[in-house]
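Subject: sequence -> structure tokens, single chain

Hey, anyone have a minute? Need the predicted structure for the following. Not urgent.
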Amino acid sequence: MPQLHRTLSVLSCCISLLLITGCEKPTVDVSVHGVNYSGETFSYYVADLTMPHKTAGGELIDPFSAGGTTCCVMLPRKWRSGIKLQVRMTHWLEARPDGSLPEVKQLFVVDVPPYINGKPGELWVLREADGKASVISSDFQPDHPKWPGKMKGWPVPSLEYRRERWHLVEQHQLDFVNAYSSLLKGLENSPRASVKDAWEHAKKYEPRSLKDFSGPDDPNYVASLKREYMNGLKESQRELAKLKEMRP
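Reply:
Had a minute. Here:
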């Protein structure tokens, strides 16, 4: 019986020792974020070199933007020199005349720099301004004082990009101005046809808007259309003028 007791005690000690020293995995799974410091939309996948089939990422990230959170990449629990990851990136060039977007695929093998405070943090996959890839393991975001990356802060859109986006909004507002101008011109040049088209459109999509009118020949309906078009034109012109003042 004493022998059995000693055997059980030794076994208990061994199990305790295993629980203390042997249960901690040498690797840890961390969440992944993508940050785009370039002027091109891109998508990415990141993987361990030893398991390239097990990827994380897949987000589509706009220029000068950041993505969400995806899962997961496995990192060694303790940093050592030579930790590398594979980053596959895709970006697109300007559209061809047929509307298709030329696709550019790139493969990067990047080093994982030393961990902050000696422990692995979330993985940040960065597309740098020149289109190259790098990674940072950190639980601090890019705008945090302890962020270890060479690029500090979140992406800031370039003047060229801001003007490009502004021009798209300006063109959209200009389309409204032109549309209301065209509707008013139609009322002036071809009143019967224009009013009939407006009535049929409203009858199909907004029948409640016609409840106060007897038909397309109702003078009140014609006057209502004209007011609607004139107010729409004035508002669109006002918004367009405000946009022009806000040009980057």
